[in-house]
Here is the input.
Amino acid sequence: MESIIIDMDEVMADTMGGMINWYRKQGYNGVIDYAKMPGGSWITGFPEEHQAMVRSHLFDPGFFRDLPVMKDCTEVVERLNKKYNVFIVSAAMEFPNSLKDKLDWLNEYFPFLTWQQFVFCGSKSIVHGDYMIDDLVRNFAAFNGKKYLFSGAHNSEITEYSRLDSWKHAAEVFL
Amino acid sequence: MESIIIDMDEVMADTMGGMINWYRKQGYNGVIDYAKMPGGSWITGFPEEHQAMVRSHLFDPGFFRDLPVMKDCTEVVERLNKKYNVFIVSAAMEFPNSLKDKLDWLNEYFPFLTWQQFVFCGSKSIVHGDYMIDDLVRNFAAFNGKKYLFSGAHNSEITEYSRLDSWKHAAEVFL
Here is the structure.
């Protein structure tokens, strides 16, 4: 069985969407400028004076627990899980409080996956497998298998990789 | 630079020793029988009537935060870290409350390592590298590099692998 390595933030979890929800709840009406996101981080789309606050909220307990699931992700990952060795690999180690939150989030929304399939790391350079689905090209650098860039405003300028524009698209490619 | 993948429990951390300390503090005087440990788990060396309690304590917040560091481990890992790409890979996902504890423990006792070097996983089958130091042969099954079994009472029956009997021994082999 071939293996697929799937990223969490901006692939399975709508991290930017969760942050925008939080930002609005704080009472801020700043414009989110998607045109300023290319280059790898959606944080640069927030008003400059709020970017440090937004980045700091990534470290707060609970933030990663409440993220919306990307559209169609649950159904497609459930089908992939029958045909591939699925591993969920998240570069979570930068955010110590996210570890338990991410595990609880996976257990809630992806109950058909087991803890044997989860990997929280700092660098993805030591994971290997047949396919990797990720939104950040830096995670592809050392990967031995085929790479698929999951589209987001923060990677719209990238042209070098095969893309998945949605989970429906992923289903077409892998199923 | 070659990479070394180092396990935490029973390799860097004296998990069994921490458990024995806790067991004594609870007021139990049961004999710890090292001869009953071979086969992969030191839990079987505890009195039978206490094994379920001991296993359950592995899930308690704080247990993995308070473990003793294995003798000479800090100094040798610090030296390895200058000569190799060191990754600390722990199959921690089975114990959800251990994740933050393990990260805090690493940051306290190994401050020269960075979060980019840490991996918490369920299965080690997707990590690759040049060398792996581990106390459990099941973690070697899919590994592409050279394997070193770190000796403990629970793996004393194994004969198939090169062994490291201590961190001093590891220094002789790798430095």
